User: What shape does this take?
Amino acid sequence: MTGSLVVAGLGPGSDTLITPEVVQSLANATDVLGYAPYVARITPRPGLKLHQSDNREEIARARAGLQIAASGGRAVIVSSGDPGVFAMAAAVFEAVEAVPEWQRLDIRVLPGVTAMLAAAARIGAPLGHDFCAINLSDNLKPWALIEKRLRLAAEAGFAIALYNPRSASRPAGFARALEILREAGAASRLVVFARAVTTPHERIEVHTLQDARADLADMRTIVIVCNAETRRVGRWLYAPRQVS
Amino acid sequence: MTGSLVVAGLGPGSDTLITPEVVQSLANATDVLGYAPYVARITPRPGLKLHQSDNREEIARARAGLQIAASGGRAVIVSSGDPGVFAMAAAVFEAVEAVPEWQRLDIRVLPGVTAMLAAAARIGAPLGHDFCAINLSDNLKPWALIEKRLRLAAEAGFAIALYNPRSASRPAGFARALEILREAGAASRLVVFARAVTTPHERIEVHTLQDARADLADMRTIVIVCNAETRRVGRWLYAPRQVS
Assistant: This one.
């Protein structure tokens, strides 16, 4: 019996954004593992074991999935969005590195629609020009590095997608991030706050950076700081293709 | 009769990466418009008109789609990857801006799996930490701006996804980009060349930036310059979650 581990992205919320290859891997799975709200999106069926775990237990979850694969099971670890963007894929390879025999396992990463792409699509095309993505959580990197990247990203003129802008345990970081971007000369730029995008709870607001308040974001919000050239057309925003 | 325009992403190549909402929009379409190789991916059927155009005719294609919608048709403009990332969505809103009555049309952008996410998934998790995406085509922006962004992205420690690295009309830019990144101190970084990802012609190679040659890329290649911390584990690469 040959096992496998798939690391699959469920997209930002709507099932209409789950790719057919992810649907197929779930149909073949013996075990689905993930953060509880993501596992809750999987339809139970006989022969499928669902393993829900806490948000912070990424390495333990990765190891559990690899152990199931090593024992002949077909495990799927589910992530929101794309598993390679601030999600489970990196944790899986970190776990593989620690146990060399796991390198021989059948492991596949299945990409998905990451939150910034879905948010951008709902409001127009704010990522139509060069852009960057920064995870504002400082659980695993120093805050000073985040500040440095924000300053350089503003100087480069990138549109800036901010993941995990704000959580109960890190209430102050996002306000500071907005301040740094204002100091970096980006105060007149437009900022998109897209919460729970493509779900029934979706809420999208646009402000200038000057007027943006930190409490407009929570952990279900993706924030896009548009580039300086971004234009409003009716209810839409877009980054022009031509920049001089 | 109410028309509509959908701007849809077909993903990087494999039909198993097309989202159900895009499949649905194509099933409802009266007209599909796009660059010829993308339109060639659509299955013909009675009642569906296929409009193929050249790569450079983006604004003309956007206007044609908007005109079909204004006349009551259900037009779908197809892009490779995600339509919001260096693709058709920005061109559509640029066309809308020029003709104010088009703002009242039913326009939707449907996101897709953009090439860098699919390439990253095939090789592991090189975009698992902060990253940026830069379009190396200087058709619509000055080359000096591309150079500035490359230098700042290297200084920020981003993984760097390079779209449209090389074309017959711009043979020298990509070699220069590699040189700039080496000068910026990134010579020991790993570089992923992912060509025609998720198609039968897929070819993925990894080199150090020091050893990378410009002729490893063409217009069907997405290049990912990994961040400095990226590790190899067997056939995989990943960006560690923890950075000090």
